[in-house]
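Researcher: Quick one. two chains, 623 residues in total.
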Amino acid sequence: MQCPNCEFNNIPGQRTCARCTSVLDFGSIDVTPPRAGTTVIPLRFRSRLEIIASHIDYRLANASRRLGASVLNDVSVAPLLRSIVPGWAHRHRGQRRLGWFLTWVWLGLMLVAAALMGGPFGWTAYFAVVGWHGLAINLILNRRLIEMNVLARMGTGLFIWVCLNAFIYLPAGVMLQRLVTPFQADGILSGPLLVDGDLLLTTGPALRPTAYQRGDIVLYRVRGDSLRAGYTNINARDGFGVERIIGLPGDHIEVEGATIKVNGAPVSAADLPIRPGFRAFSCNLVLPKGCYFIVPSTLVMQVYHMDQAQTSELLSSASQVRSDDILGRVLIRWRPFRRMAVLGSTPSPVPTSAPSLEPTP
Amino acid sequence: MNGRFSRLELGRPEAEAQTSPTLRGEQVRGADHYFAEAQRSYRRGDFEPALQLFTRALREDRSRVAAWVGQVQMLVQLGEFAEARLWSDKALELFRNNGELLAGKAQACLRQPDSRAALMCSDASIQSPGSSPYRWTVRGEVMLATAEPRARDCFEKALAEQGADWFDAIVVARVYLFHRKVGAAAEFVSRATTQAPTEPYAWFVRAEVMNAFGNIGHARDACARAIELDPKDQRSRQLLTRLDHTSHGAGLFRKVKGWFSG
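Model:
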């Protein structure tokens, strides 16, 4: 048996060459080479993806021919599809260092943009992220761009920028907002937990819980029209409030001056409203289904000639917040960075000590 | 007696004959046929079909080292360097220290880029018994990538090897083109077209090199010549269309760039 590698004549039946140790028995060896992507995606998915990619490629080629555009002619779509992550196409092409550089810088810019979101430099960081992504795609199209004149090149750059915004970043932003929504605390009385101007991250519509717990800090909507109902001497406006949930649906709430009792037991210090003090009022009610008890911290209103009983009645109705009006649970106090903290719920099922609250002057 | 031995599995020649490909009207094609077809595809610059044909040849005969080398070369030409490296590793497990496979691995490593591994593999490739244009081409490429001045000597040695022809000059030109040394690429591609003036692929590569060099007129001429030799050559037609859309400014810019890229 002759070795195919060194042509040494081995004894028949040997599995490896006696001289070069090459394999002589090739019975079950797979001879299909790996192709790009098979190491990550199983072959059957890859073939389907290739079919879809070739289909898109064909459609794009047809469309570009029909439109007479010269931009997408002969440009392979696969690297462009890989450009969804800057640097991926470069790594796939073999430019490993450049690819990783592009990816890491992009990730860094994304982190910066996330950190600055909602602030004055948020949009700058966003444009930097999109710009970097566009640069990565331009590097993929480098050869094609060199062949173009300046105007066509500028047009291509603009087209890439618009496509990135329209198909990647804006949809991603909308989806992200459904998960986590930033909220700038505005017009809220400052306290140890929350200062006017803080940027909070709250749960978005997709993560909104079906039921809240006692002690949850929530973002809720204040409806001016429901406050105005029945009163002629009030001018209340719509707004948003950030407060802690004191009572759950079905709870018996007693408020007498600065003392709050839930089901007969005084509320513990941890479950008190986050506002340092609140206007003293008195009420005694059982929360209806779908209503939470939240002591209002943000009521923008003008009141004319209102007595104590009317004030109590108004605050009592304002404290009952319907679950539809609760927009989400506050997760993180994001900015300022030195005060960044997770604002979790602190439920205390058995209140132990009576709070001593000073009424707001 | 009949009943007793009727169920013995002694082989049924009539059944085998019915299922044999020749009787079904199919042409029997062996590893030699597929390998020759693969080589032909490679020399036409059709790397994807060549890879498939090399694989078919290996299905017929797994001990054909040249087909394993061909697969690695095709993966490199298709730009799948990580896969080429992986595949050359697998092939080297089967054929220890095979010089051609080591050269293939060196090229894959170099283009990944992992110059250190490429240099080691190339050293081993040169030291292993035998010699070939491919080994010296890869050696030259390694030298070129590591900015060694002897790269050209290696390429010249590759072309001086026994069995080297116009296609090896094309391979060298494509190596230079990959590393953006357009001037040197133009020189080697000219040699190829002089040696084989009837090969459309040589003219196509010449057109590519001239295009990269910024010499749009010469690129168009080369494309036209390739199409004249093979009217079905879609690649050359596409390149010609692209060249027709190239502005003078872009051509000038490439020409200036070509002067500096050597």
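Residues 68-74, 347-361 of chain A have pLDDT under 50 and may be disordered.
Researcher: Thanks, that's what I needed.
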